[in-house]
Amino acid sequence: MCRYISFFHHPQTHDVLVSDLNSHGNTERDLKLDPDGPYREGHYLPDGEIECRLADEDIKAGCTTADCEAAIRAKWPTFNDFEEWADSIVNNEDTICEREYNQFLESWDDWGADDFRKAIARALGADDDADLETALDDVPDNDLRKLYMDNADNPYYSDGGGCYIPDIEQAAASVTLDDVLPDYGAALEREVLSKSLLTGTPDLFGDDMRWYWNNEPLELDTARELLA
Fold first, then answer.
1. Among 139, 153, 205, 221, which is least packed, fewest CB within 10 Å?
2. Residue 209: which pLDDT band, with cuts at 50, 70 and 90?
């Protein structure tokens, strides 16, 4: 269990990093630290005790816990000094923004991208279209994130309990087939155009690149029915 104040230190340069003052795990995630180093865990406790952990490779390089602890105490002689500095880092607006964005990226990779794919399929009226769902599965998560950010009014926020991505349905409603799957849309367009020529139906395509039938917008599922 992490104790207050938790930090990471560099055994050779004596740099100190903080993010979540109660959790090494969250700090490691927020700052994208490599678990294998070079930064190591440490504590500055309210009773004034400083703990600096080292790995075997640090000891082999000549580092000692005494030297690390002395270097930190030279910068922040008391617990209150260290707490004041740590609070200034953690509560800095730029730090908060960066931390929230990193939490958003993690949530996007965990579940946001998949939820956005499903929302796009629903918005296009094709959530039961196996071909489209397969094509959407091949769209990279980063490309979907850019589409989401471009179309979301309130992309994400954090309240301390986690990161929330509230505008998935709203953003998906603004995404067109040409936005997310231009090649798929172009192929379907060629199919429908070919069908219209063969059957003598009116021109299905307007200047806005949507499909039309008798001057009425043609939804994706209806277009596919015409190809059956």
1. 153
2. very low
The domain segmentation of the chain, as residue ranges, is 6-90, 93-179, 182-226
Instruction: Confirm if 97 and 106 have CB atoms less than 8 A apart.
Output: no
Interatomic CA distance for residues 22 and 36, integer angstroms: 21
Residue 25's contacts (CB-CB under 8 Å, 6 or more residues apart) are 2
> How far is residue 122's CA from residue 108's CA, in Å, rounded to a whole number?
19
The token duo for 19 is 């993010």
Residue 78 has pLDDT above 90, yes or no: yes
How many whole angstroms separate alpha carbon 190 and alpha carbon 186? Answer: 6
SS3 per-residue string spanning 152-184? CCCCCEECCCCEECCCHHHHHHCCCHHHHCHHH
